[in-house]
Amino acid sequence: MIALKERLLEMNEYFEEKDTDMKTEDGTMMILKKGRYGEYLESENFATDEIRIPLPASIKKMVKEGQLEEKDGVIIIKYLLDEIKVVEDKLIAKAGVCEKCGSKFEIKASRRGKFLACSNYPTCKNTRKILKDKETGELSVAPPAKKKEPVKKATTKKAVAKKAPAKKPAAKKKTTTKKVKEEK
Ligand SMILES: [Zn+2]
């Protein structure tokens, strides 16, 4: 078992760097690489421009499963990243501005998946969930979380107060039955 695990780790570490059709803003080619935390793109001039972009989980999965198209030794990946960018931009537009501070939202990724976070972070920690329609797969933005209204607390207190005296008559009944039994 251990030997197999070690072999799998070795296989994961063996990863050729591959050319892609993705380019940095100044036209430098980006290379598909694999690091400790998975695949990412890195500028060919990383030593000087320090451009590195993480890949979304969906594309990482495609890399792992060998689903990315390769043409003349170049991995075709740009259109996938463009598609994702379009979807994300639409979600940001749908969310509008942060209801707490009026700043724009931006897409963030966590282990649980993507969500919208206020761009004014860490001053504003507002976030919105991204919802996925189970049938159509369409993504939408969850409405702002509702605040707890103080009025509700008052009604619960009243309800508790009303319930309490209702128990008293029941207690009286018990004592009367006891008395009857004692008399017998
Ligand atoms: Zn905000």
Task: Report on this structure.
- This protein has 184 residues and is an alpha+beta fold.
- It folds into two domains: 6-76, no CATH class; 80-141, Bacterial Topoisomerase I, domain 1 (2-Layer Sandwich).
- It is 39% helix and 26% strand.
- The chain is built from six helices and ten strands.
- The protein has helices at residues 2-13, 46-49, 57-64, 78-95, 150-163, 168-183; strands spanning 18-23, 29-35, 38-43, 52-54, 70-71, 74-75, 105-110, 113-118, 127-132, 139-141.
- The strands form two sheets. It has a six-stranded mixed beta sheet, with no helix packed on it. It has a four-stranded antiparallel beta sheet with strand order 7-8-9-10, with helices on one face.
- A hairpin with a 5-residue loop joins strand 1 and strand 2.
- The longest helix has 18 residues, at 78-95.
- Bound molecules: zinc ion.
- Zinc ion binds next to loops.
Please outline the major beta sheet: 6 strands, mixed
Please report which band the strand proportion falls in: under 5%, 5-15%, 15-25%, 25-35%, 35-45% or over 45%: 25-35%
Number of helices: 6
Unreliable runs? none
Overall 3D form: globular
Q: Order of strands side by side in the largest beta sheet?
A: 4-3-2-1-6-5
Q: Which distinct ligands sit in these coordinates?
A: zinc ion
Average pLDDT for all residues: 82
Compute the separation of the termini in Å. Answer: 78 Å
Elements, N to C (H/E): HEEEHEHEEHEEEEHH
Total strands: 10
The radius of gyration is: 30 Å
Helix content: 25-40%
Number of domains: 2
Structural class given helices, strands, pairing? alpha+beta
